[in-house]
Design goal:
Order of helices and strands: HEEEHHEHEHEHHEHEH
Distance between the termini: 49 Å
Mean pLDDT: 94
Bound molecules: 3-(4-hydroxy-3-methoxyphenyl)-2-propenoic acid
CATH topology of one domain: Rossmann fold
Largest sheet: 8 strands, mixed
Helix content: 40-55%
Shape: globular
Low-confidence stretches: 14-22
CATH superfamily of one domain: Alpha/Beta hydrolase fold, catalytic domain
CATH architecture of one domain: 3-Layer(aba) Sandwich
């Protein structure tokens, strides 16, 4: 009898693990394929009234981008040690997304990779934890809403409404995405926090009106590696959302640390859900 239970348990485990496996990223998802169409990464400069300076942003346009079509936009934010090039240098978003387009798995979208440290010297140098630098991640809210989004929307062929705007980020950028996205549901309908940092507002401040959030959100994605020392910030948000009946995806990545393995996996999965 014991043996029967053991065998049944083993079969059950295999099925559960197989499902987990198929959910995660397939081999080669982040390896550049030469024989498929490629999108384009450009560095642009916009004037920020908020900061009082010209600021850089990277922008990825999808393969076959044309001014004759209007595109939705994902704003994708970096972490405390990064800048507008962090995703590009370490996360290969252009490779991951090119590959997804080649497989027909992605709605065509523009991806904006801003510098989320809204201050005159926005480089990730010196003490990246210095209070003025941490404060600059919070100040980015106004830069994003009043300077960057209007710039993107006059420069590119963009669907300029909440249903076609997504905001996501990693760590400090995850906190920003949850704070600004959930704080401005009239601007963003798609929100994702990857391994969100301690800058994430308390859940009851993030979502003071669960009914409104339920009505307005198209997607709320929260994820974190189970080995990440910051997981409690994702967990407490998830618990509150569950208690208040706000639909969301909560993904805990087994064996996941605070690194780009997790964030690339997140981008791969999150991007496929957008604008559908
Ligand atoms: C902190 C720990 C981590 C913190 C920020 C972080 C502002 C951010 C980490 C990252 O962006 O990777 O105490 O305080």
């Amino acid at each position: 009898m014991k043996q029967t239970f053991f065998v049944a348990f083993m079969i059950f485990s295999l099925i559960v693990n197989a499902q987990k496996y198929t959910e995660s990223t397939p081999f080669g998802f982040d390896v550049s394929r030469p024989n498929i169409p490629h999108g384009k990464i450009d560095t642009l400069v916009y004037h920020s009234e908020t900061v009082g300076a010209d600021r850089k942003t990277l922008i990825y346009t999808p393969p076959g981008y044309s001014d004759d079509t209007k595109y939705p936009v994902l704003y994708l934010l970096h972490g405390i040690g990064g800048d507008e090039k962090e995703w590009y240098n370490q996360g290969a978003p252009q490779v991951i997304l090119d590959n997804l387009y080649a497989e027909g798995k992605l709605k065509p979208m523009i991806v904006v990779l801003p510098n989320g440290r809204a201050m005159v010297d926005d480089r990730a140098v010196g003490n990246i934890m210095a209070p003025d630098k941490v404060q600059a991640f919070s100040n980015f809210e106004l830069d994003l809403l009043h300077d960057l989004i209007p710039f993107v929307e006059q420069k590119y062929a963009v669907l300029a409404d909440r249903d076609h705007r997504a905001l996501a980020g990693l760590s400090m950028g995850g906190g920003q995405a949850l704070n600004f996205g959930l704080g401005h549901l009239d601007t963003f309908a798609w929100v994702g926090g990857f391994s969100s940092a301690p800058n994430t507002k308390l859940p009851e401040e993030l979502v003071p009106d669960p009914e409104k959030a339920k009505e307005q959100l198209k997607l709320l994605w929260i994820s974190c590696g189970d080995q990440d020392g910051l997981i409690r910030f994702s967990e407490r948000t998830h618990t509150y959302l569950t208690e208040n009946g706000v639909p969301h995806i909560y993904q805990v990545i087994p064996g996941g640390y605070h690194d780009f393995k997790v964030w690339k996996d997140n981008l791969y999965q999150f991007s496929q859900l957008l604008f559908k």
